[in-house]
Amino acid sequence: MIAKIIVDVPVSRTNRPFDYLVPDWLQPITAVGSRVIVPFGPRKLQGYVIEIGEIKDVESLGGDPTKLKEILQVQDDVPPMTPDLIRMAEWMSKQYLCPWVMALQAMLPAVLKGKSEKILVLAGQIDQQIVERSPLLSELHARGSVPFSEVDSKYADEASLIPGWIKAGWLATEYQVKDRVTHKMISYATLQVDIAEVEETIAAMPARAEQMKRVLRHMAMFGGEPIPVKELLEEVGITRSPLKSLAQKGLIRLEEIEVYRDPYANRRFKQAVKHPFTEQQQRIWEPIEASIEKQEFASFLLHGVTGSGKTEVYMEAIERTLAKGREAIFLVPEISLTPQMVERFKGRFGNRVAVLHSALSQGERYDEWRKILHQQVQVVVGARSAVFAPFHKLGLIVIDEEHEGSYKQEETPRYHARDVALWRARDTGSVLIMGSATPALETYALAMRGRYQLLTMSERVGNRPLPQVHVVDMREELRTENRSMFSRTLFSMMEDRLRKQEQMVIFLNRRGFSTFVMCRSCGYTLRCPHCDISLTYHKTNHTARCHYCGYTLRQPDRCPECQSEHIRFFGTGTQKVEEELARLFPGIRVIRMDVDTTSRKGAHEELLGRFRAGQGDVLLGTQMIAKGLDFPRVTLVGVIAADTSLWLPDFRAAEKTFQLLTQVGGRAGRHELPGDVVIQTYTPEHYSIRYAMKHDYPAFYQEEMLHRRQTGYPPYYRLVLITFSHEDVPVVIRAAEQVSEYLRPRLTETTIVLGPVASPIAKVKDRFRFQIMLKYRDEPELADLLGRMSANVDPWMKQHQVSMTIDMDPQILL
Ligand code: ADP
Ligand code: ZN
Ligand code: ZN
What we know:
This protein has 27 helices and 33 strands. A hairpin with a 2-residue loop joins strand 3 and strand 4. The mean pLDDT is 85. By secondary structure, it is α/β, with parallel strands linked by helices. The radius of gyration is 31 Å and the shape is globular. It folds into seven domains: 2-114, 3-Layer(aba) Sandwich (GIY-YIG endonuclease); 116-178; 185-258, Arc Repressor Mutant, subunit A (Orthogonal Bundle); 279-463, Rossmann fold (3-Layer(aba) Sandwich), CATH 3.40.50; 468-512 and 574-708, P-loop containing nucleotide triphosphate hydrolases (Rossmann fold), CATH 3.40.50; 516-570, no CATH class; 718-808, Alpha-Beta Plaits (2-Layer Sandwich). The protein binds adenosine-5'-diphosphate (ADP) and zinc ion (2 copies). The site of adenosine-5'-diphosphate (ADP) has 14 residues, from helix 13.
């Protein structure tokens, strides 16, 4: 048997399969998708089996099978990747121009991404006296092996002696694949005596065995069931030694049982009530149902306003898919993977669901993932990478909030989960449903062209009105001498809600939680000397830190530029808003979510839990609170400054603003109580604000499409962003120019090549960044061309240590 294997060396020379022999004894557990250890040159590497064949295949190609090396080991009993994932990895490596092995690795939980480590081992007899004089050799004698990383740090003095020792045959180097898999085991105690005979046994035991007797009685009381040792020790109040003695006497059995670390293990979930569909849901359900019944590929864009009952439809689709004996993937943006969302799914599908999100520890993620692999669950709910769930009978993929930027991975492989899902659905004959209240322009445009079936739900469930949106012109407020950050409209509505004891969400249109340090006198901001960005203020230790390289500065007392004392951190401004709230509404209870209140693990959920429990009148925060939250008592949403996201240097600024305002608005009045939304802005006439106010997506789409056509951006053009970085400007420019010179004559005339120019973030970690942007409409050979270009310039780039990244359909243009 021959296996074609992709080895774990992400360089272009090895970016192809290599043939290996599968020895007889390994054949039973070797399959497409297996992780294996293979010899590769002087090393042992991890690899992935992508194809299995017979020896004659090699012979017929003129190869000599006796020259092939053998696979040394197979890592898993069950291949961690399915054949369709293996096919997909090949497609991804071409589509996103990444090494094949990196596409494969992206599909595995971090725990399985094998790293090989160079180690030093004993190879022959060494004179005892020499060993005693050498700390390194002593250590080797004691442990058998020492990793090279440790040699460098602890035994640097002896490093130069090592080659001699190797030559003398005392030592050898090896590569060890570190497999970080750790299984959690719990020890259990089980009674081995018949319950009826326990008292008799106890009577026969010596008086001093009092603790042992208590253990036996306790266990008998619980019917002899296995009890976790830890609980037993606590409940009986003893140490471990009496248990050991009991086990030695054969009265109890101690054993280690593997458990899955389930973060939701001790939570009970309310059985979810299934609602009969509304007329609107029924209408859009029918085509989905038909496709699920047929069990073949179909793709839908479900455009439904917030609260129209999309999630109910997704869940019904999942249930129907399971009834067909197939499996389902439900993707949500990381940020909306809230406990509520999980609860809803667990409530409906119980322990048939695995949940994958980044807040889990590596071990927890691995355990959830193994439930999928071992076919113990049929549904997975998770963020971006859950699209790689190793299901064998996939039947459905749902992408909720498909417009979200977090579906794009911003490191190699730079894939978009939407594209990957589409490919996988097609390949496996599954149904794909993409849903959003504000679809990405690209997606909606494809639906308009008939590539996806467009399904629309424009009303909320139960005819609950969409919240009334009030746009307030803040320039007008200034003219009437209102200098507060709250308009009169917002102020009076807040008073009203406080009186009625209803809840509110106040939202600052700022990205993330980060804060920067600025001098109020001269405007000087603290920036990283190595990277072209502002430093982020950390309150806990009063330092300013670079987000990219870790450069840290103590918060200065005086401005380095003008010596003013008025240098302080600025940020999302949530703190300022909180102070203002306290001043205007004495006694108001504010739950603030920002960098200071959410840095601790679990703080996020805790704060939301408190708000849900009614322990706050106002939830105050940034974009983080804009999505996925569903609070029955929220009847007012206020947006302090809607414009901030309009002027970002990004062609999607208007789209993002529209999405944000629409999403924020969706937070109000989702339940019995009607809702209001107040949007404060300095540009009320901007179309993204006007149409958000009217909940009019189609009109926004029309107008935004006009702008995109005029400026030549997606969906009219597709983009490729090629970014170069190097410590010296001339080198990085030369690299970029070479690439541009290579590409220009080979591209069709309709393709526009912009640059090379300096990137908007011109320096990171002391490396200067330049970029080339391609805008193209029709370039069928583009991936091939870029692949050839990479191979062509690769040696030069390596030699000059220039790094080049290619981002197809970039989401972030910095
Ligand atoms: P969306 O995902 O479009 O925002 P949801 O599916 O979350 O909407 O539905 C909004 C609310 O309406 C939820 O509280 C949900 O339980 C409820 N709901 C959905 N469908 C129905 C229905 N057919 N009958 C009654 N209530 C429904
Ligand atoms: Zn200053
Ligand atoms: Zn830096």
